[in-house]
Design goal:
Keywords: Hydrolase, Metalloprotease, Protease. This protein is of the alpha+beta class. It has helices spanning 27-33, 73-80, 102-117; strands spanning 19-21, 43-49, 55-62, 86-92, 121-129, 132-135. It contains three helices and six strands.
């Protein structure tokens, strides 16, 4: 499933559908995820939750030489092999732009398709920047 996003427009923190200001972040974003992201490089986090919404495991995927994060099959295996019922994806954009790139849209669509085939729900994909985060769910892209 390919995800589509409206044509690019400048980000000013208020016009981006799906943006959550840092002061309005929930406990998972604020207390669990935000601290995981270094300021100088991109990192991807996969958080697996059981059927009751309890955190089971966190997988960290570092950016490569090109700065982009990939999800190694071993990361999926460790997460799904423990019986995760839902997965939350999150990564950061050190550039400060919360707007999802074409690569972000493609990776989210691929992850959603993969997880759907094994009856696991992708609950959201969050993109963290210093002043808040973008939510694919809130932007109705999932």
């Amino acid at each position: 499933m390919a995800l589509a996003f409206p044509p690019a427009r400048p980000f000013d923190g208020t016009t981006l559908s799906g943006f959550v200001d840092r002061d309005a972040e929930d406990a998972v974003a604020r207390d669990l995820l935000r601290a995981e992201f270094p300021a100088d490089r991109e990192r991807l986090i996969l958080a697996g939750f059981d059927g009751f919404g309890r955190l089971m495991r966190i997988e960290r995927c570092e950016g490569g030489i090109d700065g982009r994060c990939t999800i190694a099959p071993a990361c999926w295996h460790r997460l799904i092999g423990r019986g995760a019922a839902t997965v939350l994806m999150a990564h950061n954009h050190p550039s400060g732009c919360a707007y999802p790139s074409e690569a972000d849209l493609a990776a989210t669509g691929e992850a959603m398709d993969f997880l759907r085939r094994i009856a696991v729900d992708l609950t959201d994909h969050l993109i963290f920047v210093d002043h808040g985060h973008f939510s694919f769910r809130r932007a109705q892209l999932l």
